[in-house]
Amino acid sequence: MPISDIGIVGSKDTMKISQKGLYALQAMMLLTRRYTQGAIRIRDVAYEEILLELKNARMVESVRGAKGGYRLRRTPSEIRLSEIIRLIDGPLAPFGDADQLRTLIDRDAEHRALYQVFLEVRDAAARILENTTLADLISRGPAAGSRPKAGERKSGERKSINRKTAEKKKAELSVLPMLARGEGA
């Protein structure tokens, strides 16, 4: 069996988060942050396609009407990153199928140690994604050193001269290139 068949070299089936996958994860994080506020309207057509996939997978649901939009169908603690990535991008592990790696370990004594390490990396990546929920991500909070939100200032920074622009930026949720509005917004 060629090494490329298990996703180590030159395979399209290796774990690689696509831009679409990243947007799906970011959209799910936004819905998680706003989970208690009801449905959130999404104004970007590209996100509508992603949210439709997530809806068909029963991770989100759509709500009709004036206060309609999208919301999580299950609690954030029940939705694992692995589900989202598998849905949008396919297999999780960076080195392909575990059974194929085990076959290489058994058949190729000269490179057994190398394939064993690949299997360990594959298993570790899958385990982390399987055991991390949306609630886990949100509980970690913003990363240290992250950029301030619109309307916030770093210490010592001058107040914005253009107040209208600052107020407009503060009103927008710019987590993603999409704009979202919920009941409480």
Low-confidence runs (pLDDT<50, min 5 residues)? 1-13, 152-161, 166-185
Beta-strand portion reads: 5-15%
Query: Count of DSSP E strands?
Result: 4
What's the SSE pattern? HEHEEHHHHHE
Q: Give the name of the CATH architecture of the largest domain.
A: Orthogonal Bundle
- What name does CATH use for the topology of the largest domain? Arc Repressor Mutant, subunit A
Q: What is the typical, i.e. mean, pLDDT? A: 76
Assembly level:
single chain
* CATH class membership of the largest domain: Mainly Alpha
Strand order of the largest sheet: 1-4
User: In one word, what is the shape?
Assistant: elongated
The secondary structure category is mainly alpha
Task: State Rg.
Answer: 21 Å
Features:
elongated; disordered N terminus; Arc Repressor Mutant, subunit A; 2 domains; 185 residues
Overview of the molecule:
With 185 residues, the protein is mainly alpha-helical. It has 2 domains: 18-79 and 165-185, Arc Repressor Mutant, subunit A (Orthogonal Bundle), CATH 1.10.10.10; 80-132, no CATH class. It is built from 7 helices and 4 strands; from the N terminus they run αβαββαααααβ. Strands 1-4 form a two-stranded antiparallel ribbon. It has a two-stranded antiparallel ribbon with strand order 2-3. β2 and β3 (69-72) form a beta hairpin. α1 packs across α2 (45-56), α1 (19-33) packs antiparallel against α3 and α4 runs antiparallel to α5 (112-130). The longest helix is centred in the middle third of the chain and has 19 residues, at 112-130. The chain is elongated, with a radius of gyration of 21 Å. 22% of the residues are buried.
